[in-house]
Write a structure and sequence with these properties.
By secondary structure, this protein is α/β, with parallel strands linked by helices. It has eight helices and seven strands. The chain has a seven-stranded parallel beta sheet with strand order 3-2-1-4-5-6-7, with helices on both faces. α3 packs parallel to α4 and α6 packs across α7. The chain starts with 8 loop residues before the first strand and ends in a 9-residue tail after the last strand. The relative contact order is 0.15.
């Protein structure tokens, strides 16, 4: 499939591990100018080295805490100084803290808002002027199946990712005339460090091993297995490609059939 992505510049946040890292590798394989960010310099250096070994291309990287507006601005400035403009933005972030409603305080809500929703708003505002001027762009938000079916003990993620979905739908209508698409990818139970951490928490509650919890999670999926980060990345790549030019304002779940609803 011809993606039309060669030499396009893509900025991926939280891209040094897991799904973000897999997305960075997918774009590198298409000959894109890849820029990655993360809070961890060590993880960024390790990921950049791996990508260079695989694709003979060293991605641009920038340390960025998505809860800090200054970090976001500095990252955007550095990327545009290196590559002129951002053609594709992938808003990805780690999950906010776990917990039931009564266990969380206002600081938890504020941090989750900055991390999940406000970071995507800030970055989208930064990249849109050039996308509109170039009459081409892609904004992709990595959310979660929780936007279609809330997950127990994840009230922050359930709430803020749903808010991001609403923002994306509104934005997609506003910028469609500029040939800019805005879509969300909602991963299901994917084998990442985040899922491992959730399994550990649940294991303590149920007095089981985290290995048992992961097996139980897999059994809830019709495909009877957990997803791989690369499977999320392939959908992101398609939505960024020229092949998806008439797809906008959508949330595509990649969950092995976990969500049973029709819509």
């Amino acid at each position: 499939m011809e993606t039309g992505l060669k030499n396009k510049t893509v900025l991926i946040t939280a891209a040094s591990l897991g799904i973000g890292k897999a997305i960075a590798e997918a774009f590198a394989s298409e000959g894109c100018n890849v820029a990655i960010s993360s809070r961890s310099k060590d993880n960024l250096l390790s990921t950049a080295k791996e990508i260079k070994l695989k694709y003979d291309f060293e991605p641009f990287w920038s340390v960025c805490d998505l809860n800090k507006n200054k970090d976001i601005e500095n990252t955007y400035t550095a990327v545009t100084e290196q590559f002129s403009s951002v053609d594709i933005l992938v808003n990805n972030c780690g999950g906010p803290v776990t917990g039931m409603f009564q266990e969380l305080d206002e600081k938890d809500w504020d941090n989750a808002y900055d991390q999940v929703l406000k970071s995507a708003v800030r970055l989208s505002k930064l990249v849109l002027p050039d996308m509109m001027r170039n009459h081409w762009g892609r904004i992709l938000n990595i959310t979660s199946i929780s936007v279609k079916q809330p997950v127990d003990n994840l009230v922050l993620s359930n709430s803020l990712r749903a808010g991001l979905t609403g923002m994306a739908k509104s934005l997609s209508n506003e910028v469609a005339k500029y040939n800019i698409t805005v879509n969300n990818v909602a991963p299901g139970m994917t084998l990442t460090r985040r899922l491992y951490e959730l399994a550990v928490v649940e294991a303590k509650q149920k007095k089981k091993s985290h290995e048992e919890i992961l097996v139980e999670m897999a059994k809830k999926v019709p495909m009877n297995r957990l997803g791989r980060p690369e499977e999320i990345a392939s959908v992101v790549l398609f939505l960024a490609s020229s092949q998806s030019s008439y797809v906008t304002g959508n949330t595509i779940q990649v969950d092995g059939g976990y969500i049973r609803s029709l819509y």
